[in-house]
Specification:
Order of helices and strands: EHEEEEEHEEEE
Shape: elongated
Distance between the termini: 27 Å
CATH class of the largest domain: Alpha Beta
Oligomer: single chain
Largest sheet: 4 strands, antiparallel
Structural class: mainly beta
CATH topology of the largest domain: Alpha-Beta Plaits
CATH architecture of the largest domain: 2-Layer Sandwich
Number of helices: 2
CATH superfamily of the largest domain: RRM (RNA recognition motif) domain
Number of domains: 2
Length: about 130
């Protein structure tokens, strides 16, 4: 059973591959009564959060594969360390079209999508062998 069917290479997932997120919380300092000027807020926010790069990649996988199998398949195929795997199942849609022969009804394929989060510093290059 082949686990990974194909990677999803779209604008949305290309942006997701090089996303920067902020971690941590903002800290708020409460001012004493009577010390604020007109137009100032009662608290001051100091931003002590840090930023880090999160590399996430999407794959269409076998519908019967579980998260552990997907993790092992990605690590083996691309030589990276997988931190998390999120999966979602998509049901096939019914499609209909009118042709000369009449009304044709069909259905699109049911598939499973996996979004894989890699360890910081790891990356997958889908365009290296083009």
């Amino acid at each position: 059973m082949e686990i990974i069917e194909k990677p999803i290479v779209t604008e949305k997932f290309t942006a997701l591959a090089s996303r920067t997120v902020r971690t941590g919380k903002k800290t708020y300092i409460k001012r004493e009564k009577g010390t604020r000027k007109k137009g100032e807020h009662r608290t001051i926010a100091t931003d002590t959060r840090s930023t880090r790069n999160i590399a996430q990649f999407a794959f269409i996988v076998n519908p019967n594969a579980n998260k552990i199998q997907i993790k092992q398949a990605v690590e083996e195929a691309y030589g990276v360390t997988v931190v998390a795997v999120n999966t979602m199942k998509y049901a096939g849609k019914t499609k209909a079209r009118m042709t000369k022969a009449g009304y044709i009804v069909g259905k699109t394929k049911t598939y499973k999508k996996a979004i894989v989060t890699l360890k910081e510093g790891d990356n997958i290059d889908f365009y290296s062998n083009i």
